[in-house]
């Protein structure tokens, strides 16, 4: 597949709801152990919250939503931000953060994710950013394999635990 990659205008953000729902369903399946801490939100509520975050992030000058399309059909999208992050390693004072990457379940395994990651990396490189952080939910081993093939290595291991009891 040879998708066209575009930057999405914030006024078009609602076209992402369907794929966000797929990602939520994927995460619910792959990380079922997390329901011990609390139930998964409904797709509608989850999208309402995520939509708000996307619109807020798009106020940042360097944030963007990249979409992959085949004609009028949305195949996938990536959300990327650039954040200040001076730290112990000399990889620059800013890092890219891949906030979302999802490909339509009907279009997976055909290079769409790879095309989106390539476009994100080119965009970050154009802003002088040297590294990109990605958070992958525990259990999403297919995505880990995908990112490792793109050159990602282990960074932080994030844990979550209940506060009471
Ligand atoms: C992970 C994802 C973005 C990769 O995009 P893609 O277009 O399918 O990826 P590509 O075709 O460029 O590469 C294929 C790789 O994607 C991964 N993959 C995940 N689910 C897949 C599926 N249902 N079919 C095929 N490949 C899949 C595999 O790592 C696959 O590599 P493999 O051949 O070693 O199994 C996409 O599969 C997806 O949206 N998965 C569900 C949501 C998700 O996990 N997002 C990442 C959250 S951090």
UniProtKB/TrEMBL annotation:
Keywords: Acyltransferase, Transferase. Residues 26-165 form the N-acetyltransferase domain. CDD domains: NAT_SF. Gene3D superfamilies: 3.40.630.30. It holds the Pfam family Acetyltransf_1. SUPFAM superfamilies: Acyl-CoA N-acyltransferases (Nat). This is GNAT family N-acetyltransferase. It comes from Streptomyces neyagawaensis. The lineage of its organism: Bacteria, Bacillati, Actinomycetota, Actinomycetes, Kitasatosporales.
């Amino acid at each position: 597949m040879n998708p066209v990659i575009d930057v999405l205008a914030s006024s078009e953000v609602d076209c992402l709801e369907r794929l966000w729902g797929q990602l939520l369903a994927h995460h619910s399946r792959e990380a079922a152990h997390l329901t011990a801490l609390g139930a998964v939100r409904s797709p509608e509520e989850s999208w309402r919250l995520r939509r708000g975050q996307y619109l807020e992030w798009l106020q940042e000058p360097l944030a963007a939503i990249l979409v992959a399309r085949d004609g009028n059909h949305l195949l996938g999208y990536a959300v990327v931000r650039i954040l200040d992050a001076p730290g112990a390693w000399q990889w620059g004072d800013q890092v890219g953060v891949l906030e979302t990457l999802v490909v339509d379940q009907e279009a997976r395994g055909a290079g769409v994710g790879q095309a989106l990651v390539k476009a994100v990396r080119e965009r970050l490189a154009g802003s002088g950013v040297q590294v990109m952080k990605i958070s992958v939910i525990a259990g999403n081993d297919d995505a880990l394999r995908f990112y490792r093939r793109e050159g990602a290595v282990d960074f932080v291991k994030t844990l979550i635990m209940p506060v009471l009891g």
